[in-house]
Amino acid sequence: MLYYLFFYWLKPHFSPLNVFRYITVRTAVAGLTALLLSLLLGPWMIARLREMQVKQYIREEGPKEHQKKSGTPTMGGLLIVAAIVVPTILWADLRNAYVLTALGATLAFGAIGFVDDYNKVVRKHNQGLTAKGKFLLQVLVCVGVGAVLIGLQANGVYSTRLSVPFFKNVHPDLVIGALLTRAHIWLLAYIPFVIFLVLVIAGLSNGVNLTDGLDGLAIGCVIISAAALTALTYLSSNARFAEYLEIEKLPQAAELTIFCGSVVGASIGFLWYNAHPAEMFMGDVGSLALGGAIGTVAVIIKQEILLLSIGGIFIIELLSVILQVGSFKLTGKRIFRMAPLHHHFELQGWSESKVIVRFWIAALIFSLFALTTLKLR
User: Fold this and answer.
1) What is the CA radius of gyration of the chain?
2) Are 288 and 81 within 8 A, CB to CB?
3) Which residues of the chain have pLDDT under 70?
4) Which DSSP string corresponds to 149-212?
5) 343-351 LR contacts (CB < 8 Å, sep 24+)
6) What is d(CA 241, CA 135) in angstroms, rounded to the nearest whole number?
7) What pLDDT shows up at residue 362?
8) Could you say which DSSP state residue 64 is in?
């Protein structure tokens, strides 16, 4: 909204406002707007959540030290989502399909998390939606994102080809071209693409959700991953940088950089209140929304494979749970003392703060490695 006010209506009368035509400026301003919203609304949100008795219920089988966190306000992710959506609406061009897709995915995954958190609050227990029910809803959202992207592909503004790190000339297509020639079965051609979207977006969303087990752990890793994606989105949208780095040129992704900046700003602001000892937790409404946002952006800018590194901590946390459950069902033995992985290190004797900071360091290394691969092609 402010984008239209400054850029179209007031700029002819006040030339300094021309600065808002630059993506870098609006990204920085959007990030600062999100940060200020989080910081200013944080105390009010905490007070409201306490007043409504929206509190966290800690699972009994978790580390004993976590039981004292029971009663801490949760669903703080509502603040994160609001601090992402509002600056994006204010500073981005809402005619951009990429921005609308990212916003829609964030809100949809946030809605799933809200229902899950609400059920926990009503039942006064740490169990909300069933795992199958939650995953089915996530799949439906991914199908919706896939339908939008397929429509954009038809208009020539999106590609279903993958960008493979280290190999500049390798671009496998996730759509089965041979089936597109047969009108009655053309939808089958997109099944691999949609399945891939589920693995990437829903997988990362659940990864962030599982990482959200210690004060500030998940949100700190999100800040690092979102910052890396902000850089990648800007580079992809800039013709000179994209050509120099030999990555997919996506001019329309420029506005998506503003969305990424809002994610970074909102996350930093939330960390102020979520740092150890946490004054509020993000809940599933925050973790699912953030994971969905990061996964969707990676899919749009064609960095799905590189997301394995950018979101390395989230992937490792998710795999630790999968391996733990699979091992126990198959052999009756556990690989880790407790899953997700951060609990394993807690039971190994690491303090909560040490686990958090070391995981942040690992997330930073993963993201820096992802950025360095851009020129190694």
Assistant:
1) 21
2) no
3) 1-20, 55-70, 124-128, 177-186, 377
4) HHHHHHTTS---BPPPTT-TT---BSS-HHHHT-GGGGGGGGHHHHHHHIIIIIHHHHHHHHHT
5) 343/62, 343/63, 343/213, 344/320, 346/63, 346/65, 346/214, 347/63
6) 38
7) 97
8) G
